[in-house]
């Protein structure tokens, strides 16, 4: 089960008013320094290389204690082909490399 960094919950009172309450649940999980570092990249664009050489690029929205990643607005890259995949979960056991986008150079390299 994926434990999001922030959980959105709405009760009957919130439903009546049309508001949504954000509840931070990160304090409930055991402290893991590696997971804390990964949480620092929330909302950033990641490029993730997996064990079968595919590369996914998208906005990092969620992780769990197994370092499974969820990317939104993701694209899959295979050799010279690219396709949009939208929302995707990448199992942590298949992740070989994670890159955080700072900016693109003129030549399309990821830095």
UniProtKB/TrEMBL annotation:
Q: Which GO terms describe its cellular component?
A: NatC complex
Q: Where is the Sm domain?
A: 33-104
Cross-referenced CDD domains, in alphabetical order? LSMD1
Supply the Gene3D superfamilies for this chain.
2.30.30.100
From the UniProt record, list the coiled-coil ranges.
none
Superkingdom of the source species: Eukaryota
Q: Report the Pfam families cross-referenced here.
A: LSM
Under InterPro entries, the record lists: LSM_dom_sf, LSMD1_Sm, Sm, Sm_dom_euk/arc, snRNP_SmB/NAA38-like
Care to name a GO molecular-function term for this sequence? RNA binding
Q: What is this protein called?
A: Sm domain-containing protein
Origin species, per record, is Conidiobolus coronatus (strain ATCC 28846 / CBS 209.66 / NRRL 28638)
Lineage here is: Eukaryota, Fungi, Fungi incertae sedis, Zoopagomycota, Entomophthoromycotina
């Amino acid at each position: 089960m994926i434990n999001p960094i922030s959980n959105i919950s709405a009760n009957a009172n919130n439903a009546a008013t049309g508001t949504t309450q954000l509840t931070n649940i990160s304090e409930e999980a055991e402290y893991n320094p590696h997971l804390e570092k990964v949480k620092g990249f929330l909302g950033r664009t990641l490029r993730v290389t997996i064990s079968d050489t595919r590369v996914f690029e998208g906005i990092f929205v969620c992780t769990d204690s197994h370092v499974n990643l969820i990317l939104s607005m993701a694209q899959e890259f295979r050799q010279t082909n690219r396709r949009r995949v939208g929302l995707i979960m990448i199992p942590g056991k298949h992740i070989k490399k994670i890159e955080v986008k700072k900016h693109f150079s003129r030549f399309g390299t990821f830095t």
